[in-house]
Write a structure and sequence with these properties.
alpha+beta; Ubiquitin-like (UB roll); globular
């Protein structure tokens, strides 16, 4: 079971408490994981990635195993610890201000 942690605003929008659990087959990538989250919770479409380009929204960051994957290739394989559920894939809402 793949574990995904959403920021509080997206948990509220998706009507979930805690982590989102996913079962995926094949090579696990950022793209396949986000596609699965959006398929399971269609109300999240467009909140993490642009509807058309599928590019990450500027104020959203992706973390796995302590690494910021936000600027990496969405088609790069995710670490085995994410695929086997040992570590969660975290989606974080960035904070900005001055």
């Amino acid at each position: 079971m793949i574990r995904v942690i959403l920021p509080p605003n997206l948990r509220t929008l998706a009507h979930v408490d805690g982590e989102v659990g996913l079962e995926l087959n094949g090579t696990l990538t950022q793209r396949s994981l986000l596609d699965a989250v959006e398929a399971k919770h269609p109300m999240l479409r467009g909140t993490m990635r642009d509807h058309v380009t599928q590019v990450r929204r500027p104020m959203v960051r992706f973390f796995a195993c302590g690494e910021d994957l936000s600027h990496g290739s969405p088609d790069a394989p995710l670490p085995d610890a994410i695929a086997n559920g040992a570590e969660p894939f975290m989606i974080i809402g960035a904070i900005a201000g001055g």
